[in-house]
Every structure is written in structure tokens, then in C-alpha cells.
Amino acid sequence: MDPIRPEPLADRDPRAGRQDRFTDRLRLEPIGPQHATDLYELYTDPAVAEWYGRWTPAEAAAEAARMGRHWQADGVHKWMAYHRSTGARIGRGGLSRAHVDGRNCLELGWALHGEFWGNGYATEIGRAGLDFAFGELGATEVVSFTETRNHRSRAVMERLDFRYAKDISIGGEAFALYQRSAERLTDGLPSS
Ligand SMILES: CC(C)(COP(=O)(O)OP(=O)(O)OC[C@H]1O[C@@H](n2cnc3c(N)ncnc32)[C@H](O)[C@@H]1OP(=O)(O)O)[C@@H](O)C(=O)NCCC(=O)NCCS
């Protein structure tokens, strides 16, 4: 068995991971077709578009639908994050199955509307992802990667206790690959 792709537990409700979950400040909704507009508005926020490129509404709708299919097939993918009190659209993030550096892994990522940078929301989403991976999914490792020059994303990884592994090339661009093992799960992860 791939150590970072655990077999589904026979007695685990396959819908369990697809329910909304809550952190201290955020409601996390598994992304599906109903999030097409919110995803489009996030990806076309100039602060995010600098990293994610140009998106049309149709492309964002296809992406939201794709993520929904992955939730169905894999029991895991990204969440849309909303503020629990105000309902504001904060961003998206969480886990997905990915093939990185020649192997299957659980990857953790985040993207926030620019107006919400600097509040710890990406770190909060990331903690929920680690909790999900190492708790319910029984994973032994989670990876994260970003363009080497994306210092804010690297800082989130470091806050979450990821360790830099190496640089990798994706599409001719240099990315920094980080790894986080279950053994390094420390105190203070909020329950989701
Ligand atoms: C990457 C990205 C999500 C990081 O956002 P961020 O706001 O810097 O990260 P966090 O939400 O964890 O917030 C951390 C900041 O909030 C501060 N903060 C405030 N309250 C905090 C809390 N409770 N917990 C942690 N940090 C907190 C931290 O001190 C830090 O401040 P600093 O930037 O002055 O050092 C954001 O830059 C982004 O969306 N970029 C575009 C998309 C992207 O590049 N995604 C990654 C692709 S791999």
C-alpha cells in the first residue's frame, strides 16, 4: 500500500469527509459545481491571479465541477472557506490527491482573497487539512509545494511545521517541495 495513500477504512462512512467542517473562524465547504462563481471571483482577484493566471467563468465552472468529482471519487479535495460570523468568502484550500515528484501524495494548498491576507486564515485552513489527513484519513505524510519565489505560501508551510525537501520543476518553473509527517503533528491543531 502506498504509505501516503491509505486504503479507505471499511467502516468509514464514505460521505463523512464530504461534509462541511468548522475551524475557529471558518466554515469549510467541499467544493462542487455550486461554488463556480465563488471560485471564479477568487481566481480573478488580482492578488490571486498573479499566481493562478487568467480564468474565464466557464473554466472556473469546469474546475469547480472537477473538484466535486474528486470529492466523490477520492473522498477528499479542496474546500471553499467562508467566515463563520460574517459569511464572507475568504478563499479556498485543503487537501487533494496529487502525483508529485514521481509518486502519489496528499497535497495541501491555499489561496485567499487579497483583502484577507495577514490574518492567519491560510494557516487555519492548513491545520484543518492536516487534521483531516492525519486523523480521519490515517495518512503518514502530507506534501505542499509552491513557486520558489512564493514566500507567503512558503511561510504558511513553515508555520504548519512542514520541512523543505527540495526544489522540483513543474512546467519548466522551479517549485519548492515541502513535507510534513504525521509524527510531527504537534499540539494546538483545532478540531474540525
Ligand atoms: C499564500 C497565501 C494564502 C498566504 O496568505 P497569508 O495571509 O500570508 O497567510 P495566513 O493566512 O496564514 O496569514 C499569515 C499572516 O497573518 C498573521 N496572523 C495573524 N493572525 C494569525 C493567526 N491567528 N495565525 C497565524 N497567523 C496569523 C501572521 O503573522 C502572518 O502575517 P505576516 O504576513 O505579516 O507575516 C496568500 O498569499 C495567497 O492567497 N496567495 C495567492 C495564492 C497562492 O499563491 N497560493 C499558494 C499557491 S501554492
From TrEMBL:
A GO molecular-function term, please? Answer: acyltransferase activity, transferring groups other than amino-acyl groups
Give residue ranges for domain N-acetyltransferase.
25-163
Q: Mind telling me which InterPro entries this protein's record contains?
A: Acyl_CoA_acyltransferase (IPR016181), GNAT_dom (IPR000182), N-acetyltransferase (IPR051531)
> What SUPFAM superfamilies does this protein map onto?
Acyl-CoA N-acyltransferases (Nat)
Q: Which Pfam families match?
A: Acetyltransf_3
Q: Which PANTHER family does the entry link to?
A: GNAT FAMILY, PUTATIVE (AFU_ORTHOLOGUE AFUA_3G00765)-RELATED-RELATED, N-ACETYLTRANSFERASE DOMAIN-CONTAINING PROTEIN
Protein name (Swiss-Prot/TrEMBL) = GNAT family N-acetyltransferase
Species source reads Actinoplanes aureus
Lineage start: Bacteria, Bacillati, Actinomycetota, Actinomycetes, Micromonosporales
